[in-house]
Design brief:
Strand content: under 5%
Strand order of the largest sheet: 1-2
Largest sheet: 2 strands, antiparallel
Helix content: over 70%
Shape: globular
Distance between the termini: 61 Å
Order of helices and strands: HHHHHHEEHHHHHHHHHHHHH
Radius of gyration: 21 Å
Length: 387
Amino acid sequence: MSHEAVAELLNQQHRWQLAGTFWLLAAREARQSGDRAKWSRCMIRAGLMALTCSQFEIAEQRFKEVIEQAQAGIPAPAVAEAHIRLGWLYYEQDRFREAAHILRTGGKLLQMLARKENTDAESLRFYAHGSILPCEGHELIVALEATRSHWLGRTYVDWGMQQDNQEMIQAGLAKLQKNRQYDGQLGHYPNVGFALLRQVPALLYQGEVKTSERYLAQSEELLDRQGTTQGHLALHKGMFALEERPEKAMDILENAREGFTEPIFYAHGLSETFKEISSLYLMDDRKSEDERALQYALAAAVLHPYSRNIELLQLAARKMYWRMGENRTAFNTFWQTLEERLWRMDAEPFSDLRYLMKAFPENGISYVETSLEKARHAVQDELSRKG
């Protein structure tokens, strides 16, 4: 089997880190032979594998390398896709302004591509939500635009909720609806399901409970049960329950946790689940529940140390600090115990970090160390700022 074929097989088995290595080998082989189309395709796939594994710096390097070669004979669809994937990456890091900018740039490239007379000569094996979509000609442009609309919509929605900007939220929902139309046009109905699912948080934020419930039901009908899909469904059901039936939310979120750990580990999905569980505990007014909230917030931040998780961690830490009479020495002792429990990984939620060790045996420890240091500094900054 060729390196690219091995990478495809490993990706289907959800062995993303190893798949990325073989796509990188295929890209190196293509560079030697002067096959720029294959090189760009495999570099983007290697970047996608790194992105899926939360290795964002590596993913960014892969995508940017393709973009920087735009004038050296790289196929135009690959350059457009690299912009779209980079926008996805920035979204994942809560870098919403940068994500919106690069995704809009990708849109301009697609407009130029649509005007080319020889578009039918272009072809691409395109990935969308884990599915391989062989596309060419006009269908290729539609598939690229569908994915661009998806990530731009999610960027506007989450950025809008962060800023409490209703206009931006509405723009995001419109983009997700457009994404839904594109995928429906292509017959990619599981992707339509994801487009529906990703509108639920914004609809709940706006108080559109009935529409949220309807979209959840429709997405469940359209989505398959492969990979981490069950986790995504349960996570959004848990978000709905937090708003409408909090007493049922924990059981649903536990299902989401299982969907992101077995049989496939997905760090970002698990962090999102931990964030929702932490928020559920924060609703209670007992010290024991505040302690649990801080544990889950810390686990979420270690898995995905970016702004929304960091902000939740700071909120949970501030509440525990207040519980302790704003005694800095007592809190520091408590935090040290918390870190010790994290490294033991023998009780929830920290026991789930062992899945991280199994999935990434070569860099799992350094991943936790780096994230934990960022979390520690964020908490110290929060307490110093308000102390």
